[in-house]
Every structure is written in C-alpha cells, then in structure tokens.
Design a protein that fits this description.
mainly alpha; single chain; 5 helices; membrane; transmembrane; transmembrane helix; DUF4199 domain-containing protein
C-alpha cells in the first residue's frame, strides 16, 4: 500500500513543528507566543513539496491541486495538535498548560481540550490561508483551458 504524498508531507510538517517546539521548550522559550508564529514556515514547506510533486507528475488541474494542498496542510496541523495533546499529557496535563503562554488565547486557566481545540482551529485557519496563498502563486503555472486565454477585441 502506497502512502499518499499529501500524508507524507503532512507528516513532514508535523515533524518540523514538533522539533521546532521541542527546541523552544529545551531553550526555555516555550512561553514566548511570538515564536509560535514561525510554525507557518513548516506548513508552507510541506504544502510546497506536495504542489511541486504534483506539477512534476503532470497534474496541472487547479482544483485537484487545491484539494491536495489543503489535505497536506490540514493533515500536518491535525498530526501536530495530536502530538501536542500527547506531549501536554506526558508533561502533566492541565498543570503544564498553566506554564505555557498566558497571553495565547485564554484569560484564566484553559483545559487540555480547550487549549488543543483552539490550536486546532488556529492551525486549520493558517493551513487554509497557506493553501490559498500557494494556489494563487501556482495559478499562472496551470492552464485553465487548452487554448489559453482568449483576447477580447473591440
């Protein structure tokens, strides 16, 4: 059984984000919410890998590539949030969340479920934006019809 490239690249996104956050944790920067915005780099990387692979394989259908890009980025985000839930549970659950950035999304003390759900929503939004931006970038590379755009003459 061959694993789809979208899932492989989603796993690469997961590894990149996971290693990035483990390094932040080891260096003591896990509570700095500004550094968390850099995880979008890994989403861009994995999604670009999928689109490049599709283009090399001759897949020039814009809708199919858009679905492929969304599938890649969403799978990476979903795997990352599942990994975070496991990590938080190992580190102490709700008590560990209190040590993370208080400026993130909540005032007060969020639970593991609330924290993970908010990260999942944030991740899906960023994954959707990344996919949309990359499709805008790759759009000129795809032909919408075999004859190209027709000029309108007056």
């Amino acid at each position: 059984m061959k694993i789809p490239k979208e899932l492989i690249n989603g796993f690469i996104i997961f590894l990149g984000i996971g290693i990035f956050f483990l390094v932040l944790e080891a260096l003591g920067f896990a509570d700095n919410y500004l550094l968390r915005f850099f995880n979008i780099i890994f989403i861009f990387y994995g999604t670009i890998r999928t689109l490049r692979s599709n283009f090399r394989e001759g897949n020039k259908s814009l809708p199919l590539n858009a679905v492929s890009a969304v599938y890649t980025s969403f799978s990476g985000v979903l795997l990352s949030v599942l990994g975070l839930i496991i990590f938080i549970t190992i580190k102490g659950g709700d008590a560990f969340i209190e040590t993370l950035s208080r400026n993130f999304l909540f005032g007060g003390t969020p639970s593991v479920v609330k924290y993970s759900f908010s990260l999942l929503l944030e991740g899906f939004v960023s994954a959707g934006l990344v996919s949309f931006l990359l499709m805008l970038y790759w759009d000129p590379k795809y032909k919408s019809d075999k004859h190209g755009a027709k000029k309108i003459e007056k």
